[in-house]
Amino acid sequence: MKITLIAGARPNFIKIAPIIKAIEKKQSEGEPISYRLVHTGQHYDKALSATFFEELNIPQPHINLEVKSGSQAEQTAAIMIAFEKELLTNPCDLVLVVGDVNSTMACAIVAKKLNTKVAHIEAGIRSGDLSMPEEINRIVTDSITDYFFTTSTWAGENLLKFGAPSSNIHFVGNVMIDTLLQNSGRISKPVFWDEYQLAEKNYILLTLHRPSNVDEEKSLIELLKGIDEMAGDKKIIFPIHPRTKAILGDQNLGLKNTYFVAPQGYLNFIYLIKNCLAVITDSGGISEETTVLGVPCFTMRTTTERPETISIGTNVLVGDSLQNLEKCFSEFLQNGIKNKGVPELWDGNASERILSILLLK
Ligand code: UDP
Prior knowledge:
43% helix, 15 helices, seven-stranded parallel sheet, 15% strand, alpha/beta, binds uridine-5'-diphosphate, single chain
């Protein structure tokens, strides 16, 4: 079986790393399987791309389509045009896409139109919020997917409602957690740890990059000022995503507790999660990692496509108001976290399950 693996953006790299390991393991066991890794070039900044290849020992891509930035339509179209040429030159039995970025949807459409089977890892999750580009990517991708690999039974139920045949839905667990567990012994302090006098639980880790939080400069600044105020005697470590940095520029916001740092490599970032008092974020993937690590997480969004991080894990859906964040955070300071648990099959073996299923196809 010849598989083409698609990766385009930071969370994709983290998800494909264990899949490649699982493919290589099957190859070493003599299974007839090979892969071709296509990097679409959606994320091209070293801090969002090359660093992850180095740290997670991901082999160099066989090709980089180098699509870079653009509007939603420009980027999606550029990926489709470049990937169509790639797939015509290097046909395969299966195109495997992960997550919910533009590369996921664009390559799934190209593959299906060239009559190539599509497998989607992290299929079936839904926020119900069509103002998020990711939600559109999820719905379109799942509408043409052949093999659905899911992180929860809820995701499988969503797919059934949507008409997917149950025989093609496979609840396998979470590949992002495979990476987390495979690398937990390798995490390391970031270079600024001593300089900023960080210590276990004396800081809050903050990430914000969703358009709803960062695209409006005035409200972003108000949010950052409010969080800085709320932190009291805690520091805030804010690895700033290029999208957020482009909005704020180099202006001095006069924050007293907040330290702006570059986007972190995976091993430093997980170290920061593991040792912080709490995470404030608008990332979906990070709320999965905090769930498994048992770290309190406050999600600055009104919806989530990962409800198990709330019902089982440590995640609190705060909404987009600073007032509600303050309320939820002060409740946490008084009462601690509401619950702590690991969702079913988030055990580090999802990639191996996926490979075993694919080899039967
Ligand atoms: N991440 C990282 N460095 C950072 C911020 C995030 O390594 O500075 C990792 C994080 O641990 C998680 C992934 O990037 O594995 C989440 O990516 P992102 O928030 O961009 O995507 P989302 O999950 O929101 O789709």
